[in-house]
Amino acid sequence: MKKFITTLKNIWSIEELRSKIVFTLGLLFIYRLGSFIVLPGIDPNQLANLSNNSKGGMLGLLDAFVGGAFSKASIFALGIMPYISASIFMQLMTILVPQMAKVQKEGESGRKKINQWTRYLTVAVTAFQAAAYIGYLKSPGNAEALIPAYGSFFWISTVVILTVGTLFVMWLGEKITDKGLGNGTSIIIMVGILARLPQAIREEFNSRITMGAGGLLLLLIEFVFLIAIIMGLIMLVQGTRKVPVNYAKQIVGNRQFGGARNFLPLKVNAAGVMPIIFAQAILFFIGFIVGLGNSSSKAFLSDHTNVWYMIIYSVAVIAFTFLYTALIFNPKQMADELKRNNGFIPGVKPGQPTADYIGTIMDRITLPGAILLALVGILPGLFQLVFKMQLNFSTFFGGTSLLIMVGVVLDTLQQIETQLLMRQYDGLMSSGRMQGRQAVPSGM
Questions:
Q1: Contact (Cβ atoms closer than 8 angstroms) between residue 54 and residue 60
Q2: Last residue of a domain, one of 161, 195, 229
Q3: pLDDT at residue 426, rounded to an integer
Q4: Inter-CA distances, 211 with 216, 223, 269, Å
Q5: Could you report the per-residue pLDDT of 389-425, keeping only the tens digit for each?
Q6: What is the DSSP code string of 96-164?
Q7: pTM to 2 decimals?
């Protein structure tokens, strides 16, 4: 406890780090404040049905990412998610389209072009999603919240306000990244997810109180499992396979270069959270198509406590893990970089044999990583099925929400520790330097 207090004092004593923290908290406060401002033309007292209809499925996932702003019909109802969708699309295009890959390799100018195209695409995606959100607000069960006198202006004002709101949130994220602490986009998503935690705990506590003395014991067991899952997720996020790499010696004049021994870290979960998002989106889309003619099929494909849903979902996550890893991981490029820098893996010839060797190792470690990622995805359904817990509370036992929170917290703590070590303070861990993530996916 004493070391923890000392570490907090050291963090606060660094003026640059203190200003970054205060700046980040200030922008996050603005974001959360805007999440409670209701769109013009909507009666906030009639939003109960909207909140109930947005539970479960992709709508529930979206509402979780924006901190409940979707179910509140807020000006930030779409949050940062259109920008995330545009970023993912542009990232895939830079992999699949050679012209886009060429632009990305142009250095700083290429990166600025990609970012600018991403912003333009964000406007288009937001306008499309805003129009879909209006249709959702006018659907039966939600239309009672609309004010009839404002009907003639509702469509155009809502599209404009939601688009501007998303662009403003995107701007907040960029400012946090530039002048604050951590990746702004990821932190905004994490804050939206954490905003639901107090209400989820309160709902679970009230449900356990009604069960009597045994309910509190069960609640304690649930928190123990939650801590264990978080520790396991930290291991999954940080897990790497280190491939030894040697660099050939070079003598230039009287000086010797190279000859060092290093490691090539290959992440067990290189795909991050993307396979879970893709699997949920695919199942939601299939459920929507099938549900047009059969409502029971739609319910089956959106019920995460159903055994068949868990099986299909797990297979989809494993398949998307291999697919996304193959898209973002290029062993041939790694082998060429090693060869260009006079590096080699002991016992493996440079060039194509090195690429095959790295690809084989990556395939071997991706399989257990994909299985663990699928397990993380179905854990909320398992815990809700076994412990009969509330839906909101069960979402924190795995899935996209917990994986994003763990990754963002680790990345932010790593940046804080770097600031401390630069000024010759002790790190956050008494046993040594904290091993952070090797790379942060753009957008997520």
A1: yes
A2: 195
A3: 57
A4: 8, 17, 40
A5: 888 888 888 877 888 888 888 888 888 887 777 766 5
A6: H-HHHHHHHTTTHHHHHHHHHHHHHHHHHHHHHHHHHHHHHHTSTTTGGGB-GGGHHHHHHHHHHHHHH
A7: 0.80
Scan for tokens 């099938």, then name that residue: 290
What 3-state class would DSSP assign to 255?
strand
Pair type for strands 343-344 and 250-252: unpaired
Mean pLDDT on 263-291: 76
Asked if pLDDT for residue 14 goes beyond 90, the answer is no
Digit-coded pLDDT (tens) for 21-60 = 999 999 999 999 999 999 888 888 877 767 666 666 667 7
Q: CA 163, CA 171: separation in Å to the nearest integer?
A: 12
CATH number of the domain where residue 286 is located: 1.10.3370.10
CA–CA separation, 327 and 317 (whole Å): 15
Distances (CA, A) of 117 to 94, 100, 111, 162, 294: 12, 11, 10, 20, 40
- 123 and 143 part of one domain: yes
In one-letter notation, the amino acid at residue 174 is: E
What's the one-letter identity of residue 435? Q
What is the count of structural domains for the chain? 2
**Strand partners of residue 261:** 246
Whether the per-residue pLDDT at 444 is higher than 80: the answer is no
CA-CA distance, 111 to 105, in Å (whole number)?
A: 8
Q: How far apart are CA 204 and CA 57, in angstroms?
A: 20
Please give the residue range of the domain that contains residue 130: 1-195
